[in-house]
């Protein structure tokens, strides 16, 4: 509520408001105990200019990302030039240095009035937290995880800050709270910190056991997100490729003379971090042409309204009646009809050996050049003729349409499943952010939580079509005219939806804690306890509630009172058992059982 509203007016409209979690738990006697570290995700942390070209005159240490985005509107091409990284190295272009904003202000608000961490910080402050026992692990979210250390020594700073917090709090271990891509970044950190220098931080195999109480992951894309594929393939993801999160009307504007999307694509394709979110585990995890773990999911299911705890048993009892069998394993289908066809009836022509070649010399496109211009008409046609792509073949597709991007990316990220985790090759940093190719630390006393929203349609697969040819066009686009109607309500505007938090499907957020790491497995050899905490999405009751206190949406969940209460309790000393163990509303346990992965 705006503070300017008199309290009695607010109460008259909304009824008595519940105490914020910090106030409520303060009354119960909870006090600050364990130091807390926040790890922000992609696009949520502020970035400021330290060195730039002539066009950026007067912007020294001004925010180019986050804040008001004023410079984007004043000098759009200059802004794109400075926000882009070098296409070969994935690091700073010559003469440009953009660095993360430091401190809690780096990600408390994304833009004026749009909170990210601010509500959680304010509630922790109510039980005695302040800057000395709260730390924002800000990093440049555009560059690959290992490069944040190479360029900025960010991982070393996180390590020394955690060590300082443990030492200055009398030996109390730290609670880590990563959000979104920060979840993968911290997975990378936990491996980096153990490994000897120069590749790692040299903390030794017991560093995590000595310093970490719990890792409370919020909206974690552990196994990637399908929307990263559409973002890299055609710049159409809502927020992973950041195209839509810049400003609401940005993409509809004529700011770049009709070529906004191409400029956005050129910029976001220099950000190596976006490749950390390509789906991992291939068809084993995400399904093939004829099966998927979420098979039988009903899009019009009515969810229980409130967060009354709902166990795996009652979840299994709910029978899927007349569920349309969406073939979710087909992440990209060219044509709505192809998405439904039996696989035996799909005629496919392999695209991998297709001849590429420039369709025509086009000098007007130089400013918005994308790798599509090197594919030629033959290459574009070959991609569409292959008809269907699963999580396994999507990697080949991206290597075909974006070879430069994927060459840089495959030096820093990997998407497979390890056969033998003791194989020496898995000591390389490119495997560290993939939970299927790395082991959790040897820290049996630590706990890992997967906390995420459910009950919101979330992108899972796409119906594509070829774009009408134009001068500087992106040749593929989601077919927004593809609708499932009553027969297939999961298909809306060319996108097949499944349950999730609007960005991360439940499968990606929940599988590792539900099964992959549950008990002692080869991915979790020391048997770290894992807990799933799902929060059922309830939209704000009225306008005065702002973004709501029961939201399950990917970013708005950061203001969810139930989630904040869970975090405060753990920071004040509680365990996962004290919170009541798992809290599950979705089919995550059932879906996890369908995945045949050697554990």
From TrEMBL:
It is a single-pass membrane protein. It comes from the Eukaryota. Residues 297-321 are annotated as: Disordered. One of its GO terms (molecular function) is phospholipid:diacylglycerol acyltransferase activity. Keywords: Acyltransferase, Membrane, Transferase, Transmembrane, Transmembrane helix. It holds the Pfam family LCAT. Its EC number is 2.3.1.158. It catalyses: a glycerophospholipid + a 1,2-diacyl-sn-glycerol = a monoacylglycerophospholipid + a triacyl-sn-glycerol. The keyword Translocase does not apply. One of its GO terms (biological process) is triglyceride biosynthetic process. GO terms for cellular component: membrane. It is found in: Membrane. SUPFAM superfamilies: alpha/beta-Hydrolases. Belongs to the AB hydrolase superfamily. Lipase family. This is phospholipid:diacylglycerol acyltransferase. It comes from Anisodus acutangulus.
